[in-house]
Amino acid sequence: MLVAGIDIGSGTTKCVLIDEQGSVRGRGLAKTKADFEKVARETFEAALQNAGVTAEEVGYVATTGLGRYSISFRDIQITDLTCGARGAAVLFPNTKYVLDIGAQSTRAIRLREGGKVKEFHMNEKCAAGSGGFLERAAKYLEVTVEDIGPLSRGAQKPQPISSVCAVLAESEIINHVSQGVGVEDILRGIHNSLADRAYGMLKRVGLDGEITFIGGVAKQDGMLVAAREKFGFTVNVPEHPEHTAALGAALLGLQRLKKLGRPAKAAA
């Protein structure tokens, strides 16, 4: 029997399949579309193919993320804060805090025992502290999102991006370009800015120990360097940081299924 966790995020939709021992068997990922049901099925099918199994072998489906209520074949929906916390705690049992930077939001989470959420804080006013801003910056600078991390690591004189508003921050980037500032220095400045804002959120939830960095932005090594320099504590990054909440959903789904003590149904 397998359990699926599907995370319908604002930027991408992820799926993780686990077995009864909680081991990952397959993963899927696709760009989120307006039709949440369609993209969830697409990602679910990709995870099935990755695992080499069929839908009939999946007995329970847990959904999370902004589109979690929209999936007709789900058995349970769980908040993304809860799922991100559980996934991070299972991957790194000593972690005390979780930093989740996705396409449209940044969340700092303090954990209690068992990987449960004790306290959290998130950006409330603007996307300048999220991955979506990085995507827009990449377009301005004519680089790919995949190149952001390596370019950032090559910076010699990082340029500060001080605006808390995405529109004003974009104006700062344009000014830097017009002044001949190198792309590498601008990108590292953006990473430093994101790290500064994330640090402020982590401090608000009492930062005093090990952090696990999840979400798509955690894949950018330049951002990881900026975070480690700023935070002053161990910063873990999972092998697949963007799938952490989906993993947490699957694990919580498995826990729920075992608690129910009933035969699982096959996913439709």
Describe what you observe in this structure:
By secondary structure, this protein is of the alpha/beta class. It has 2 domains: 1-90 and 242-268, Nucleotidyltransferase, domain 5 (2-Layer Sandwich), CATH 3.30.420; 93-237, ATPase, nucleotide binding domain (Nucleotidyltransferase, domain 5). Helix content is 41%, strand content 21%. The chain is built from 8 helices and 10 strands. A 5-stranded mixed beta sheet has the order 3-2-1-4-5. It has a 5-stranded mixed beta sheet with strand order 8-7-6-9-10. It is globular, with a radius of gyration of 19 Å. The two termini are 15 Å apart.
In the CATH hierarchy, the architecture of the largest domain is 2-Layer Sandwich
Percentage of residues in helical conformation: 40-55%
Radius of gyration: 19 Å
Number of strands: 10
TL;DR?
With 268 residues, the chain is α/β, with parallel strands linked by helices. It has helices at 36-51, 80-91, 131-141, 145-153, 166-178, 183-204, 221-231, 244-260; strands at 2-8, 12-18, 24-31, 58-65, 76-77, 97-101, 106-112, 116-122, 211-214, 235-236.
Write the layout of secondary structure elements.
Blueprint: E1 2-8, E2 12-18, E3 24-31, H1 36-51, E4 58-65, E5 76-77, H2 80-91, E6 97-101, E7 106-112, E8 116-122, H3 131-141, H4 145-153, H5 166-178, H6 183-204, E9 211-214, H7 221-231, E10 235-236, H8 244-260
Parallel strand pairs: 1-4, 4-5, 6-9, 9-10
Antiparallel strand pairs: 1-2, 2-3, 6-7, 7-8
